[in-house]
Specification:
Layout lengths: L1 H19 L4 H21 L6 H23 L7 H19 L13 H16 L3 H21 L4 H6 L4 H65 L6 H19 L6 H12 L3 E6 L8 H21 L4 E6 L8 E6 L4 E6 L5 E3 L16
Parallel strand pairs: 1-2
Antiparallel strand pairs: 2-3, 3-4, 4-5
Helix pairs in contact: 1-8, 2-3, 2-5, 3-4, 3-5, 4-5, 4-6, 5-6, 5-8, 6-8, 8-9, 9-10, 10-11
């Protein structure tokens, strides 16, 4: 359940990141270019400003906007978490306040209010796009109130101060529409993509199972058809042919009960061991199925080589090979039971082999045979 919730959050986060480019290099670059433009226009429009504290306030406004823009692009989560939303909104309001109240009274250039108002609109529009339109609109209204007060204090007129903030609401409306309309669509698109990927994985698994089934049927047809044909035709079998038929039956049974050990070297070693009179039992309880594909392939090859070596050494008695169920400390075990000794060799997924008897050493000392 927790895993499904996490995957769902990842899908939503991926939808926002990919659909709107949040955190992407092009958006970082665009924000950097805007920051450079902000700085150039600010310096140009305020070249007549000589007051130290005025420049401190103007620079502080730039720093506030830069911090808000950084948080917008860098903070993960969808929608934008509440604490960063509050911080970004406060930074936008503080940036406008510090910038406007640091300008000369009256204004000396028509573009002096442009950079802070424009920066606040961009930052808050992204807040809306990232799923917090109410916070963005609240901060925008506060900025309009502050601009109205500033316009009155700066002798520009309260309505003039309000007017400089009104064009930004068009961008705010677009950001809000993106949030309310396109975000759900993006989530649905990425949910559909994830569903398609799951279906593709199921189809691949079904195809793999069909291939295994086809291979086993082909093996049955190749090995058993001649015998079954002779049975249908009521032909008599010699003692050697009966022995071969029993070996084929045992081999086919191995492919069903121990599919992960159904490899050429294991089949050949088991066939020869049975010819010598050794009783061979191969069992598979699924321990390899939980490993990653590459790790499972390496472990299967090492185990097959080790089993083939043990079967080649067996001259009599019983050899039982078992791949353990998932979750065991050991991946597989091989039990060798002869008239004069009983030996158990255990293998781990890491590639080590441990023997409980010193009479017959484990294959390749304490390491599995190499691929």
């Amino acid at each position: 359940m927790i895993g499904n919730c996490e995957r769902g959050r990842d899908v939503e986060r991926g939808a926002v990141d990919n659909a709107f480019g949040i955190g992407s290099f092009p958006l970082w670059l665009a924000m950097g270019i805007f920051g450079c433009g902000y700085l150039v226009v600010t310096v140009y429009a305020n070249n007549d400003v000589t007051g130290v504290w005025q420049w401190i306030g103007i620079i502080a406004g730039l720093v506030f906007f830069a911090a808000g823009g950084f948080l917008i692009l860098d903070v993960p989560g969808d929608p934008l978490p509440v604490p960063p939303t509050v911080v970004i909104s406060v930074l936008a309001v503080a940036g406008v306040t510090a910038s406007l109240f640091s300008l000369p009274f009256p204004l000396t250039h028509v573009m002096q209010t442009g950079p802070p108002i424009g920066a606040s609109v961009i930052v808050l529009a992204f807040v809306a796009v990232r799923g917090r339109p109410s916070a963005a609109w609240t901060a925008s209204i506060v900025i309009s109130v502050i601009a109205t007060v500033w316009g009155h204090v700066a002798t520009q007129g309260a309505m003039w101060g309000l007017a400089v903030t009104l064009p930004g609401y068009a961008i705010m409306i677009m950001g809000s529409l993106f949030s309310l309309m396109l975000r759900p669509m993006a989530r649905q698109l990425y949910a559909l993509r994830e569903a398609n990927e799951r279906q593709a994985a199921r189809d691949a698994a079904a195809a793999a199972a069909a291939e295994v089934r086809h291979r086993r049927l082909a093996a049955v047809d190749e090995r058993a058809r001649p015998i079954l044909t002779r049975i249908v035709e009521r032909r008599e079998f010699s003692a050697d042919e009966v022995a071969v038929a029993r070996l084929i039956e045992a081999q086919l049974r191995d492919g069903i009960r121990a599919s992960d050990l159904d490899l050429p070297q294991v089949r050949d070693a088991a066939w020869r061991a049975r010819l010598r009179g050794v009783k061979v039992v191969l069992l598979d309880d699924g321990g390899l199925s939980v490993l990653a594909d590459d790790e499972a392939a390496r472990a299967r090859d090492r185990l097959a080589a080790a089993v083939a070596e043990l079967l080649a050494d067996a001259e009599s008695g019983r050899v039982t090979v078992r791949i353990h169920p998932p979750g065991r400390n050991t991946l597989a075990s091989v039990g060798v039971d002869t008239d004069d000794q009983v030996e158990l060799v255990e293998f781990t997924a890491a590639g080590t082999a441990h023997s409980s008897s010193s009479a017959t050493p484990a294959p390749s000392a304490d390491r599995w045979p190499a691929r």
